[in-house]
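I'm stuck. Please check this protein.
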Amino acid sequence: MIQKIVNIKDLDDANSAKDDLLYWLNKSPEERVSAVEYLRRQYHGSTARLQRVVKVIQRS
């Protein structure tokens, strides 16, 4: 029989932040960049680059 296990943790817990930091420090730089690229693609879509936005303001 499979039992469901649920762990509820407070997001403001200092130990959880430390665990997150240790997790990412144990990853190689390539894995970290790959994770950031994955999150960027989820947020911005599959564009090759981020869009550049320029706003020109005329000062008087």
Q: What stands out?
A: The helical segments are 14-25, 29-44.
